[in-house]
Amino acid sequence: MNVDIKKIEEEVFSLSSRERARLAMDLIKSLDNCDDANAEALWLQEAERRYQEYREGNSQGRSADDVFREAFAKVR
Predict the structure, then answer these.
(1) Confidence of residue 1 (pLDDT cuts 50, 70, 90)
(2) How far apart are CA 45 and CA 39, in angstroms?
């Protein structure tokens, strides 16, 4: 592994979990900026598929409160 990457990793892992989560989100956003003409259509298809599973009773939903509570607990 590149020495510079190793040094960056060491610095990143010294951050708090909240700071690492923010950095991870920013890094993922930077990757999401890649142009993919089909990405939106694929996400819409996936959303429709999941919604259909939910309507047919093949999938359970969760309240937004539960989802956010769990997510925030993981970054604290």
Answers:
(1) low
(2) 10
Task: Enumerate the H helices of 1-76 as residue ranges.
Answer: 3-13, 17-32, 39-55, 64-75
Could you tell me the residue ranges of all domains in the chain? Answer: 3-75
Entry pTM: 0.43
d(CA 73, CA 75): 6
DSSP state, residue 33 = T
Give CA–CA dist 60/5, Å, rounded.
Answer: 41
Q: Rounded to the nearest 10 degrees, what angle do helices 64-75 and 17-32 cross at?
A: 120
